[in-house]
Amino acid sequence: MEKIVEQGFLYDFYGELLTEHQKKIYEDVVYNDLSLAEIAEENGISRQGVHDMVRRCNRTLQAYEDKLHLIERFMRVKMNVTKLQELAQDEELTRGELAEEVSLLSGRILEEL
Questions:
Q1: What is the value of pTM for the model shown?
Q2: What percent of the chain has pLDDT above 70?
Q3: How many CA atoms lie within 13 A of 56 on its CB side?
C-alpha cells in the first residue's frame, strides 16, 4: 500500500487515540500536505520536533493496527464486497451458482465482523 494511503487509513481508524496536538500535526502532514518547516513555524517547534512527532505517531498508529488488525479486516471485507458486486453483474451465472457464491462471500464477510 502506498505510504500516504496507509497513513490515511491508520489515522482514519486510530487517529482519535492520539492527543489533540499529535492529531493536528499528523493531519497537517498527511491530509494538508504541509512541509515540516511550515508545520514547525505554525506550531512554534523545530522542524526536527515535527519529524520526530510524525514518526512517533506512525509507530503508535501502526502498533494499534498490529494488535487490532482493523484495517486488515476492513480490506478483506471490502475485497469480498467487490466480488459480490462483480457477481451481481455476471450474466453468465445461473441463479443457483449466484446463490452459492453469494452465500460463500457473505459468510466470509460475517466472519470478519
A1: 0.81
A2: 99
A3: 13
